[in-house]
Amino acid sequence: MNDSTNPALPRRTLLSAGTAALSAAALGACAGPRGARRESGDAPGIAPGSTILFQGDSITDCERALEDNAAPNLQANLGFGYAWLAVAGELVDRPDDDLRFLNRALSGNKVYQLAERWDADCLALAPDLLSILIGVNDIWHARGGTYDGTVEVYERDYDALLTRTRDALPRTRLVVCEPFVLRCGSVDDTWFPEFDHYRAAARRVADAHGATFVAFHAMFERALTYAPPEHWAEDGVHPTSAGAALMAQTWRRVVGG
Amino acid sequence: MNDSTNPALPRRTLLSAGTAALSAAALGACAGPRGARRESGDAPGIAPGSTILFQGDSITDCERALEDNAAPNLQANLGFGYAWLAVAGELVDRPDDDLRFLNRALSGNKVYQLAERWDADCLALAPDLLSILIGVNDIWHARGGTYDGTVEVYERDYDALLTRTRDALPRTRLVVCEPFVLRCGSVDDTWFPEFDHYRAAARRVADAHGATFVAFHAMFERALTYAPPEHWAEDGVHPTSAGAALMAQTWRRVVGG
């Protein structure tokens, strides 16, 4: 999950625009009180007949088939991560609702890399619901020195991606998932508070575009009460099966009808 | 998961009582239509302040701590299986509801072995909600020749266990989970239709005692549409992490409020 495999990696310039000021509301976002099934935005559930597209990086990709992957709903085409586990629950609970789930996430992606393949891997698929989880590589690769993006670049690119999506697909429901890390493995205290700025940026982008926000980082903060960080994401970034299972439940509660 | 480790294993006698006639309703039970959150019995959800006890065999045990395990809600005391994954979702969603989750399942157990330790491992704990998943060893060990129980013994013992529970804990909500197998690993077609008789017996026992029934076998039958049996339970009996994640979602949907 770094850019060393991409010799053509474009270098990014730092933007002065945008504020990284933390919103207390954003940081305080959590899975929501009992009975409140959604966190923000207009969240009408998943209508029968919908096409649902997952987008993101390795956390969503999870070894999904990269070729001959047009068929919806098959585990092989959806990977083994939270997306698949949420899909499995939806499909088993709603066998007669003609739901079509697709996954086009790609390991290593940052926001600008989603943008580069957005026509084919999002707009052409015309999803009724689009769920995006992106951001950890935007900070991780910058920290590693293989990328010169910043939180301002992240927010600008993410905002542009959703503007472009809404222009092309005005009726598509948007879901923005909060980036998350656990303090273990590759992640330590030096990631903070910078990481909080990234997740606050994701929250602002979600709010600006009327997207449902799935507060995964806040979810994991709570989950640490009951199990150590390694239980949820051994390397601090990629969820274990337990972490993915918890994400799937939260995604369904927040997004599902 | 066999009785070779228990030289004192009591031998069971076959009962003539009970019918193994399959109930079409029982076999047709499934995760339920969209919006129907429960499948049978009086299912008021999980009230704040509740103590919830999981009981069963290895599928529920999943390497939970066997000593110093009194503390509720900790992953170490709840194992890594469906029970823990359901608990994690409930706890993260309901942090202020003072829920106390316990797991006292034990690998290898059949119904009569639950009965042998029921005073200490169930009644003394006085749960507000008791969820039991038991049965696969009752048939598996009989097929393996280490146990002479039958489906009639299973149903009689299970019925007696719930009668005893209701007498001691009349206000405890009961949840009976359907035993399940997948046709792979240790399980092949020769398990059927006998296995169907066991799960129909579990359904009858649930109905007789007003228990909520969680139709795990029917759930897995549906899930096979999207992934092969090995994806859900590599040996046909013990769920993979994906199988456990799906069970947790179904358990919460059916049992949770």
Describe it.
2 copies of one chain form a homodimer. Chain A has one domain (19-32, 46-255): SGNH hydrolase (Rossmann fold, 3-Layer(aba) Sandwich), CATH 3.40.50.1110. In chain A, helix 4 (82-93) packs across helix 12 and helix 8 (151-168) runs parallel beside helix 9 (194-208). Residues 1-43 of chain A have low confidence and may be disordered. The first copy, chain A, is an alpha/beta fold and 257 residues long. A 5-stranded parallel β-sheet of chain A has the order 2-1-3-4-5, with helices on both faces. Chain A is built from 12 helices and 5 strands. The longest helix of chain A has 18 residues, at 151-168. The interface between A and B is large, with 39 and 38 residues.
In short:
Chain A is 40% helix and 9% strand.
CATH level-four homologous superfamily name of chain A: SGNH hydrolase
> How many DSSP-defined strands of chain A?
5
In total, how many domains does the architecture of chain A comprise?
A: 1
> What's the Cα radius of gyration of chain A?
17 Å
Average of per-residue pLDDT values of chain A:
87
Strand content of chain A: 5-15%
Major sheet strand order of chain A = 2-1-3-4-5
